Amino acid sequence: MKLEINATDQNDGVLRLKLDGVVNIQTAVDLRRQLKPMLGKAKQQVHVDLSGVSFIDSAGLATLIEGLQWSRAAEGRRFVLSGLCDNVRDIFELAKLDTVFEIEQGGAV
Amino acid sequence: MSDSEQIMSCRLNSSCECIGVLISMVEVVGRRAGLSDKQINRMKLAVDEMFANIARHAYHGHEGAVEMSASWRKKQLRFELRDYADPLSASDIRSWARPAAAGDELKPGGLGMQLMRAVMDRVEHEALADGNRWLLIKDLGVSAPNEEHSYEA
């Protein structure tokens, strides 16, 4: 099970993260390793595109929650998710996180 | 689908790399049991979370043996996982599921147990002399995923 993580910074105040694969106990460690320094940068928004993610578990959700906590630590920051497929959205709903995160409709970031 | 019980089993270790094997097995079992994609995804989630709990909390990150058998018949799907770690008590297990306090809704602790309970009809644990047995049961044909679920330890 693999997770590909591609980060882009276009100097517009938004850091973009595109994930492809599975976010679980095995791969969430890598995601956290890449996400953590991004949250330390002076950016106003982190945008995570999940359109390539077919499955996420509580380890993956916990990593994304760190991003959410970052956004809530300072006014004006946004941590945005997009591109959730039906199965991933279902897991967010089961965890009651679908109304907690800012989730954009559509896959493109 | 036949009403006679069908069983599939495997033995592996608690390394994270092995989770893919279990998930593949759930996929096969789910297809054979006639589950929808959404139901299979939920079964994958429950098994993934149970395996993660065994790896983290029973074996504390050290590698140990994990056995899983999946059995299904017309009206019920059961996943049984067995570890050979120290037997856990009910209070050990309850401590994983820290309920979110007011204003602390983002705390991820206990999320795995919450998800297992949400998708399965029963989540059970039995402490054995040489380990733990975990049972995940889904009654097929009952579509109320967020109803109250039992947890016995």
Q: What is the strand tally of chain B?
A: 6
Number of helices of chain A: 3
Query: What is the terminal-to-terminal distance of chain A?
Result: 24 Å
Structural class of chain B: alpha+beta
Number of domains of chain B: 1
- Cα-to-Cα separation, first versus last residue of chain B: 32 Å
Low-confidence stretches of chain B: 144-153
What proportion of the residues of chain A is helical, as a percent range? 25-40%
Q: What count of helical segments of chain B does DSSP give?
A: 4
* Mean pLDDT across every amino acid position of chain B: 84
Question: Can you put this structure into words, describing what you see?
Answer:
The complex is a heterodimer of chains A (109) and B (153). Helix content of chain A is 33%, strand content 34%. Chain A contains three helices and five strands. Chain A has a five-stranded mixed beta sheet with strand order 1-2-3-4-5. In chain A, helix 2 (58-72) links the parallel strand 3 (45-56) and strand 4. In chain A, helix 1 packs parallel to helix 2 (58-72). Chain B has a six-stranded mixed beta sheet with strand order 1-2-3-5-4-6. In chain B, a hairpin with a 2-residue loop joins strand 4 and strand 5 (131-139). The relative contact order of chain B is 0.18. The model of chain B is unreliable at 144-153 (pLDDT under 50). The chains are: A alpha/beta (109), B alpha+beta (153).
